[in-house]
Amino acid sequence: MLDLKVGGVPEHFNYPWYITLKNKEYTKQKINLRWTDFSGGTGAMCKALRESEIDIAIVLTEGIIKDIIDGNPSKILQTFVQSPLVWGIHVGAKSKFKTIQDLEHATVAISRFGSGSHLMAIVNAYNNGWDIDKLKFKVVKNLQGGIDALTNGDADYFMWEHFTTKPYVDEGIFRRVGDCPTPWPCFVIAVRDEVLANNPEQIKTVLNIINSCTENFKEIPDIDKTLSIRYEQQLNDIQEWLSITEWNDGKPITKNLLTRIQNKMVGFNVISEKINSDRLIKNL
Prior knowledge:
This is ABC-type nitrate/sulfonate/bicarbonate transport system substrate-binding protein. With 284 residues, the chain is α/β, with parallel strands linked by helices.
């Protein structure tokens, strides 16, 4: 039995992993797969990959590309979610800020440097023609940290996945002033180089199992109701999310796609220069 550790955010995107683990589909293939929630998001997962605390990460595309360029000994195997991630731009309920344009000189809460909330704040600034070098950041670790920072006035706005934060908007904790979709597929599956070198067949098996689940995920009876209850979201919000979300079709990630994403990231000043995309991906 091979032990493997996988990490991801505790959000509805990753419910297929819960299903396949609950059904012991990996155990049947002699793989002891264990899941860890990372409420701190992509930055925390990149750190865990570097420190061998996890073997596989379901991670934001922009975050892992930047971290591999910066020395993370891992490779991207495939996209997990092909559709963009819609980042809500939130202020506190009592904030003086009313529009995205009001936030140009405001302090943005981020989970950590190199995280999706950090990199997408840069993308949003670029989209609005702001001076990226003048962005001010407050590290808050996770979603709860973002709630606390905006409520206490330690930061002015916070970017997090639109539907995950929708309940806090409904409760009047946050006020959303706009959205910023990623200009690329949002989640990829990344694996440590050492694990890929030693266990390529088992990793292939893991991918086959999860891809088989996501292929028909939307057709699972009452999946909208299940997700609504599990993630404490309104049924109509989950239905909207399902309608705009597309998982991977099982195809490996291509060098051309990674090159196009890197070109955009350079343009957004998210990375300073691109590398050969062969250094980012591994096709099993």
